[in-house]
Amino acid sequence: MKKPTLLLCAVTLLCNLSLLKVSATEYTNQEVVSNLQHNALKSDLAYKIAESLTVEVGPRLAGSHENALAVDWAEAKLKSLGFDKVYREPVTVPVWQRGEASAAVIAPYPQKLIITALGGSVATPTQGLQATVIRFNDLQSLIAAEPSLVAGKIVFIDQKTERHKNGSGYGKSVGGRANGAVEAARKGAVAVLIRSIGTDHDRMAHTGLMHYQDGVPKIPAAALTNPDATQLDAMLTRGHEVTLALKMTPKDLGTTTTYNVIGEVTGSSKPKEIVLLGAHLDSWDEGTGAIDDAAGVAIVTAAAKLIGDQPKRPARTVRVVLFAAEEIGLIGGKAYAAQHQAEMNDHYIAAESDFGAGRIYRADVKVNSAALSAVQQQLSVLAAQGVTNGDNQARGGSEVSLLPAYGVPVASLRQDGEDYFDYHHTPNDTLDKIEPAALAQNVAVYASFAYQMAQSILPLRPLTSGSK
Amino acid sequence: MKKPTLLLCAVTLLCNLSLLKVSATEYTNQEVVSNLQHNALKSDLAYKIAESLTVEVGPRLAGSHENALAVDWAEAKLKSLGFDKVYREPVTVPVWQRGEASAAVIAPYPQKLIITALGGSVATPTQGLQATVIRFNDLQSLIAAEPSLVAGKIVFIDQKTERHKNGSGYGKSVGGRANGAVEAARKGAVAVLIRSIGTDHDRMAHTGLMHYQDGVPKIPAAALTNPDATQLDAMLTRGHEVTLALKMTPKDLGTTTTYNVIGEVTGSSKPKEIVLLGAHLDSWDEGTGAIDDAAGVAIVTAAAKLIGDQPKRPARTVRVVLFAAEEIGLIGGKAYAAQHQAEMNDHYIAAESDFGAGRIYRADVKVNSAALSAVQQQLSVLAAQGVTNGDNQARGGSEVSLLPAYGVPVASLRQDGEDYFDYHHTPNDTLDKIEPAALAQNVAVYASFAYQMAQSILPLRPLTSGSK
């Protein structure tokens, strides 16, 4: 962005594409990229980082004592790896404590059900509550329901999550988790239970963030495991009225300060321009947060470290941001955007790894549409890792998805998430779910992506409607 | 056994094998067997039985209130299916209640670990206990250890269970579960934790029976999930002393009476001679006991029902025995043997289904070795279901394994148990783990096996050393 001719080019969108192609290759150092990919694939650095975070810290819910340990861990880890600059930036977060959650069928077939509280849920009355169940296929059916049918009952939203490589089943079903409590409470329900937003058949309930709304009563919200949801459905299918007992003891403990932790490999010629690689440091509290998101922390940290280990730094700074409090509402990302607003124009491009450790198969971007083909030419170095170029509609993932609103170009390095929602937000999110070779492929892709972008002379802005 | 010539033949072992082969086919009715297999494969009866037991009763630990409901369920189910005789026989069982079990690393990396009490374990002191951990590769290493290294510590037996189609990994590792507490206590340990005897990578601890020994202190015994065992091992591998807190509240509540539930399809010409098909009605308390052993209950019940539905009854009685209290020490099987001792000579052959719902691939028997080839000829009707003949060293499975000591021939219809120990004795043992088509194949095999045996004129006794 510092060269007037290129700036003009970006602003006027009059760039000659063939010129861009030539320019794009000027800074490309095939030898460096090959070397980065080779080093990434033979290195166990990322796996060791993920292992260290999950074993030595483990679960690290935003705002918890364990999360504070994770911040210390992250700062120490980035320093020990020799990043040029390592620092933390404060983020104010609400503190929610899970407590216990239990459910049981009281009639007609008494037995326990396995549940977990949704993140942010209020508690039941101390002695618990009992009510009959009303089942809905999905959130939309609940919204359409006659309130008198719902009043006084426990709403059961029984939508299954579809399994797709790109994880698109999640978006289709997560509405019940996010908004089920509000919609159920509007109609007088006393609690809401959802079928876990997950593709597994394990007795593992999937937690995740839920919302309340001013003016609507706050009712307890929890997820049943998939087998328990099937069990409850089987009882209801018999035509009986089913009565449940529910007891949950989560607590809202006010707010506290946690931190985004940042490490930089300083650019050689354009140190103020930033290629941002993000991941999130916090996790839900039931697993050790291995695929969500120790994997991402490990991938972007190892990728930047490998770039820093090259004989010559790339032009731009590679900034690793380990965001706080992603799980409870992208809070670290919002804080970063606010704190770095003056610097937003210096963010050349940003990407975030927050979808486990499956292999990357496609690179989507969101850039000025005139630059797309040249950017894709630069990213063709990823083909050696099995990554094809995708579209110009990337969202960038998690916190980074907040940045296009500030004009920042983003990339989505799409991972195979076929089994991601088997483990997501459950106690089962543990280190054994990460395949070391796939993790290393991610590092190879992120390292070469970041290097190419840190060297590129392409103007990627402004984001145009064509890139939406 | 009623024909003098055949009895003589059996006793003297002078039978002409070619004569036996001719005799063996006399009663064989290929049309009936084909019909049974065809009906089994198109019927959802077994699946409906398994669904009914797991949904309407659910977990049914021997001696529990739920187990009493299961007995009522079984008697009603057999009656509703039109069995000729349905009755229950009392079995005295100890009553053990699981209570709660929690564990946490106190130092150096504080975090929770997921455990479950082993069946029969005593409780910790009310306030729990804390101690450092000493790890052993297996029970043998513990037995060989210097007592001073073990005294005052929590013993961690970290043996992995191998995955095999025939389930043979279980036997190799289960010793630590059964005898770990005794061996650890002999050396002064305060508790024992084992890596779950299971082939999965889920945060699901596998319970199962453990033993104490007179004269050796009773210490609490629990299983860690596989990922938690790996986590603990990773901490120990760092060379730190690891301190755990452990709290368990199981209770021994004396004894109670439960029941073996029996249903018979009365034989047409030799009604006092019995082909016994067994399964067990009790389950562990954390799953709904679908693969262990609602599947077996469903398979043998449906198989006998299909035989009873044929236009003509086979010669012998097919007796379905739904045993009590298998999980806590084959107690129902021992009671059956004691109560039916006078009738043992009338048990023509026995088999038990207690290894989930995987497809049957092999039929082993334990019969007089002179009869082996003729029996295998009779069982060649199973080939249509993909079942080959195996060896003459069958144990018969679970309770039925007690019967050869009384001279009773047995068969083992071997199921594919590749994934059985992923779910065995965990909360994950639920209906969704049963594949309906595989369950139906089991019914086809059991029905045709039982029919062939109920019609056979082969003398199968005495069991000879060659059949051991």
From TrEMBL, chains A, B:
Coiled-coil annotated residue ranges, if any: none
Source organism, top-level taxon: Bacteria
Checking Pfam families in the record gives: Peptidase_M28
- The positions making up the signal sequence are 1-24
Q: Give the InterPro entries listed for this entry.
A: CPQ, Peptidase_M28
Where is this protein found?
Answer: Endoplasmic reticulum; Golgi apparatus; Lysosome; Secreted
Q: Which residues form the Peptidase M28 domain?
A: 260-448
Provide this UniProt record's keywords sorted from A to Z.
Carboxypeptidase, Endoplasmic reticulum, Glycoprotein, Golgi apparatus, Hydrolase, Lysosome, Metal-binding, Metalloprotease, Protease, Secreted, Signal, Zinc, Zymogen
Name the predominant localization: endoplasmic reticulum
**Quaternary assembly:** Homodimer. The monomeric form is inactive while the homodimer is active.
User: What protein am I looking at?
Assistant: Carboxypeptidase Q
Q: Which organism is it from?
A: Shewanella yunxiaonensis
Phylogenetic classification of the source organism: Bacteria, Pseudomonadati, Pseudomonadota, Gammaproteobacteria, Alteromonadales
